[in-house]
Amino acid sequence: MGILKEKLRNHQLTIGSWITLAHPALPEIMAKAGFEWLVVDLEHSVITIREAEELIRVIDLCGVTPLVRLTANNPAQIKRVMDAGAHGVIVPMVNNAEQALAAVSAVYYPPKGNRGVGLARAQGYGARFQEYLAWQETGAVVIAQIEHIEAVNNLDAIFQVPGIDGYIIGPYDLSGSLGVPGRFDHPQFLEAMKEIGLAAARHHKPGGVHVVEPSPEETRKFIKEGYCFLAYSLDTRLLDVSCRSGLQQVTKL
Fold first, then answer.
1. What is the pTM of this model?
2. 33, 37, 164, 170: which one has the fewest Cβ atoms less than 10 Å from its Cβ?
3. What average pLDDT does the segment 7-28 reach?
4. Burial annotation 43-63 (CB, 10 A radius, 16+ → b, else e)
5. Could you read off the pLDDT of 187-245 as tens digits, one per residue?
6. Between 25-33 and 49-61, two packed helices, what is the crossing angle to 10 degrees?
7. Which of 44, 87, 186, 204 is catalytic?
8. 44 is catalytic
9. What range does the domain containing 146 cover?
10. Cα–Cα distance, 163 to 112 (Å, whole number)
11. 133 phi/psi in degrees, rounded to 5
């Protein structure tokens, strides 16, 4: 079984991060820093499918699990990033069971899914197709992104879809769907977070949060609350915060 899939199944803590810039040095630096998985973000970046393949390759060769956050729940894009060697996908705006099932079906070959067969990097360009066929059953990861109040209202159905390995909360979009964008202390947002936690407990579904600002304190808080799949910030925020913090310290000398 894939390491990430096994950790999710056992509710073991695993911490990764997000990549929105296409230079291959970034995933290499972040992988060497110790992240267990890295997400190539195709939803909120200008990364092309060609650049995504290169980033996936670097992450994989560094011994870290490469995931892709999709532009949308699109079977054609899922097929392409999986063929490029992604170990799994994070699917944005999964708001009901039908959308969850569509994502799972696009990741897996028949009879479990309906993904078309290609012989690309993931399959060793044809030399390792049988090996890949066996691997996908125990290694491929499908994460549903819960980021809308509609999803919160359909959690029981979403979490019961076979093949959904876990979930991750998108706090900005979730708060936006409630009419309180970025207000993470608002009672409506806190109630939605509580509902997600209760549903996850009912279905024993591992999950996490994207901690967008690089805050160890905030990350520790979510760990204490039982989340095990945590995204610690993203490349641009890590760079920005580091630059600003360093300059502030320098100018105080």
1. 0.95
2. 33
3. 97
4. bebebeeebbbbbbbbbbebe
5. 999 999 999 999 999 999 999 999 999 999 999 999 999 999 999 999 999 999 999 99
6. 30
7. 44
8. yes
9. 3-251
10. 9
11. -60, -40
Please tell me whether the peptide bond between 111 and the residue prior to it is cis, using omega within 30 degrees of 0: yes
- Of 190, 202, 203, 201, the closest CA to residue 226 belongs to 201
76: buried, middle or exposed (CB in 10 Å: 19+, 13-18, 0-12)? Answer: exposed
- CATH of residue 36: 3.20.20.60
Per the CB < 8 A criterion, the answer to whether 183 and 143 are in contact is no
Task: Give CA–CA dist 93/152, Å, rounded.
Answer: 11
Count of structural domains, the chain: 1
Contacts of 120 by beta carbon, 8 Å cutoff, 6+ apart: 83, 84, 85
Rounded Cα distance, 170 and 147, in Å: 5
Radius of gyration, CA atoms only, the chain: 18
231, amino acid identity: A
250 CB-side CA count, 13 A:
6
Which whole-number Å values give the CA distances from 203 to 1, 186, 209, 229, in the listed order?
21, 26, 18, 16
Report percent pLDDT > 70 for the chain.
99
Q: Which residue in 39, 160, 44 sits closest to 100, CA to CA?
A: 160
* Residue (of 204, 207, 224) closest to 216 by Cα position: 224
Question: Which residue from 5, 164, 43, 147 is spatially nearest to 97, judged by alpha carbons?
Answer: 164
Cα–Cα distance for residue pair 122/82, rounded to 1 Å: 7
Collapse the DSSP code of 122 into the 3-class scheme (helix H, G, I; strand E, B; otherwise coil) and give the result. coil
